[in-house]
Amino acid sequence: MAAQGLAGRAPRPASAMAQERRRAAAGGRLIEQWRRWAPVVVLIGLCLVIGAFNANFFSTGNLVRLLNSAAIPVVLCMGATFVILMGSIDLSVEGVVALAAVVASLLVANDVTAIAIGHLAIVPALAVGAALGFLNGWLHIRLKTPSFMTTLGMGFVGLGIATAILGGVTVRISDQSFRYLSLGRPLGVPMAVWVAALCVVVALVIQERTRFGRWVYAIGADEVTARQAGVPVERTRILAFVIAGVFAALGGVLAAAQFGQGHALIANGRLFTTIAAVIVGGTALSGGVGSVLNSVIGVFIVVVLANGMVLMGIPPYVQQGAQGLLIIAAVALALDRSKLAVVK
Amino acid sequence: MSDAVLEVEHVSKAFPGVKALDDVSFRVNRGEVIGLIGENGAGKSTLLKILNGVYQPDAGAVKVDGRPVRLLSPRQAFDSGIAMVFQEQSVLSTLTVAENIFLGREQEFLRWGLIDKRRMNAAAAVELKKVHLDIGPATPCARLTFAERQMVEIAKALSLDSRIASDITILLDEPTSVLESREVELLFSIIRDLKARASIVFISHRLEEVLAICDRIYVMRDGKVVAEVPAAEATVHALHTHMVGRQLHHEYYREQRQSPPGDEVILRADGLGKAGAFRDVSFELRAGEVLGIAGVIGSGREELARVLAGHAAPDAGALTVHGRPVRLAGASDAVANGIGLVPAERKVEGLVAQFSVAENMTLSALGRFASRGVIRFAAERAEAARWVERLHVRTPSTAAMTGGLSGGNQQKVVLAKWRIAGVEVLILDHPTRGIDVGAKEDVYELVRDITADGLAVILLGDTLDEVIGLSSRILVMRDGAVTATFDAPAGGKPEQVRILEHMV
To answer: B148 contacts in A (CB within 8 Å)?
Structure first.
């Protein structure tokens, strides 16, 4: 069909429409901006408050410690964010972390097996994560079970296998070059932090520049529409769980390298931190809204809070409770409550 | 017929128990704007779904540019040059304009697996120009108005024209039902421009608009095409006649059944006000009366209705029910005081779509169908069946999901719910919005039934004509204040112009 130019004609009515939109949006834009930046504001506020109580908070030593304790959670969050952006959830984080840590620790120089393949151990460990992630996605799609239940179950499968392999013993890693993955300090910053930073870059490229990333947002916003537009919904969903599994497994490898050990308990508490950080960072559980960068901010909110309470000498049990409450508060701040008629 | 871009030949489609399409033939020529009209249930949506690849026909063929095509998915239909612009829009508000236009078709912008955003935005800008939309391709769709989103969908359809060999047909499903008149004009001017590059199928209930914009009109009834008329030779009256298959009643609004107001005042408002919405509204509502509220958007009448239904609290004034002062702190308070709202967005506010007809009907008065907290299903079913019969609800059974019923029938279920709950005042918020002529007449009949039973109605009508026709008294609002009150007895209706003077 002849593509003749309509462009030249004056689009007067359209610009009138645009004007109206701008007027309507002027008020909404501020709120929108606030919502966007709320997690950052919370993080800065938190830092200022803690810094005011304890000057040590801003010391170089403490900042490096903060970065280090954020490293593994950031890696775990990179995968979890994609799943949550899709409107699903991945509760298998701890199972994957545990299994990957055990697999890696058994394949490097250690006191249980005679195998020692060094850094190559990362490959089977990540493959295990990818496999568990694939099972998560595939079962969730094929059996049409909610991701909540599928991944919760798969998490226990992972923990179970990890515990069964070891039969109660703890693997001690003697491969120092493997431990360098977490403990090495190029430029004075722990290697784990560099790895985490690389993960953020990779996740950001996936999110912003690939079709997969675009489709994750589309599915999270409205799966029916995405399907109508020809988005391969099933494939995208499975891939998101695979990516989450790989990032979780990498987290497990880093944890093994950090502690120099392999056992199922290494995963304790990882699930709460991961989900909390993603949500506190401002990614909506309902899907479609958020970003891996939000999750990075979310991780720092959780980590800074924990660090601050240690610095202020708050008893550990109170710390846990305070963490829980502050996470609820952060979610209340960041969410657009006005549009919610029903809260489930 | 070499200039036919889209042909439907002898297509039939049956669902269990219904012959939805019966030997339908339909042709769209290059550059033509085709009107497709018919009552709900006439087969329009089935035909659209076949063209959009959602359903496959049992018999017959669909041809694009003279070649038969099999459309197995919306995507396949789109790639064959048939693009659907949905009534309930399919723009994703969390993505940008460009991302929406090329969703699922990012392939052409990939370089080493990564999307080249600059190139995609530039390509989107080209499409936006075709619909005269002066917004950046990187704008998030959440910031667009409803009309602008519609333009984005049209731009998405037009993006096909340099990318596929076939001609493009755009199916517009009730595109004007939620637009302001200025936006409708803009849409029409764009449709006229589009004739150069696409053919349009325009589906609407507003026959004046169909006549204004279309070249040729197909009328469907009971799954068949009953008429094909050039728009130049058609009139609204003739189209109505084709649609309903009989002459329209002279007494369209059932004026002969309008009952004179009773003596008893049910609801009384004194100086009711809400900051920023309306002020100093007073009226009396009597049994058997229909009080119409006329006003443009922004006149405060929508807010007034919400306050009366307990959805919002007033800042000033008093409400009395049967002489008792009441404070409505929520919708349940309003129901307890005998006031029920039938909202404009039935699916959102009026009904639980996943509930059965019976469950919806008894929702507000469940206590009456339960003993010690246990629901008595037999009693519930019996009551529901009684109302299904009384209101002529077209449903397979009282156990059928309400979400599967047509708009008019859902409306009746909402009404039955309030009747069962024993309300005395019904607030009808645009009760005929988005439903066709025949179903509208059913609603008018229902309004007369309601008042004949001694209930009172507050009506926010879809058109001024409707408000005048149905109401016994009319409250006119402008900028939050009541500017006039008219009596509108049967046979003595005020003229539209007199009311308009006080509205704008």
So the answer is: 17-18, 21
